[in-house]
Amino acid sequence: MPALVLLHGGGPGVDAASNWASVRAGFDGEFRCLAPDLLGFGTQIAGTGGLKGPRAWALARARQVLDLLDRHGLRRVHLVGNSAAGGAAALALLAVAPGRVERAVVMGGAGTGPVPSAVPFYDDSTAKSMRATLGRLVADERVHSGLLDELTELRLRQALRPGAEAAFRSMFADVVGGPPPVDLAKITTPVLALHGERDRVSPVEVSERLVASLPDGRLDVVAGAGHWIHVDRPDEFVKLVGEFLST
Q1: Considering its fold, how many domains does the chain have in total?
Q2: What's the CA angle centered on 236, arms 233 and 240, to 5 degrees?
Q3: Pick from 79, 81, 138: which is nearest to 109 by CA?
Q4: CATH classification of the domain holding 43
Q5: Catalytic amino acids?
Q6: What is the longest distance spanned by two Cα atoms in the chain?
Q7: SS3 104
């Protein structure tokens, strides 16, 4: 059974289990799935104080995934990377260890768009702020009101853990120097970029530019979906990913 590593997104208080809950069962029958908490989130907050800036975090997470593959004895895997945490980590991994990845799917621009002008949530770390932050991730909040309420409680609790705010703020830090940007033109692994037609976090143009820079990139815009394609269109998401990875 082929191995699939699911790399979650980068919103405040996120963890792997809640990020992939809507689609995990759809993949488990076809793939051996691994879904780690990425550095800076969930169970992986401690010991990340030396990282600063999105490039450093993406590279550190790529190395984290490589360590995971080695521990599980996995020579080659498929990747799904969500947004500015998992997507950026996936691109960094494709750059530093291309031989370890068969095919990759990235979502919502994979962190290749501009850095947000303001750090989400933490300037107003309340339940109301968290609910508003999560609401922007779906196309229609009314459709997912119960889920958003549930996730607000979970992610508020996790976002307020000791060290979580400092780690999160450092992910968006504007730093001079540090690791160079990923050279997309040198990534030869087949990559499918998925983008929600109604994404309110990152415009479709970000993924269009990403795909245009990749030697073997393809873009699918998912009609009616927001930034959380896997929540808005879970069945379509599983189908698109499964077909691409099985090609």
Answers
A1: 1
A2: 130
A3: 81
A4: 3.40.50.1820
A5: 83, 199, 227
A6: 45
A7: strand
- List own/partner pairs for 111-117 with CB under 8 A and 24 or more apart: 111/10, 111/54, 111/58, 111/83, 111/84, 111/85, 111/87, 112/87, 112/88, 112/184, 112/206, 112/209, 112/210, 113/202, 113/203, 113/206, 115/54, 115/172, 115/174, 116/172
Asked whether 20 and 29 are in contact (CB, 8 A), the reply is no
In the β-sheet with 3-7, what is the strand arrangement from edge to edge? 32-34, 3-7, 77-82, 101-107, 191-196, 217-222
Condensed to tens digits (0 to 9), the pLDDT of residues 181-195 reads: 999 999 999 999 999
Q: Are the C-beta atoms of residues 125 and 160 closer than 8 Å to each other?
A: yes
Q: Which domain holds residue 128?
A: 3-246
List beta partners, residue 7.
Answer: 81
Instruction: Kindly give the residue spans of alpha helices, DSSP state H, lying in the chain.
Output: 16-19, 24-28, 54-71, 88-96, 127-135, 145-159, 164-171, 204-213, 229-232, 234-246
Position 185, amino acid: A
What confidence score (pLDDT) does residue 31 get?
97
Quote the tokens at residue 180. 């160079």
pLDDT in tens, 195-209: 999 999 999 999 999
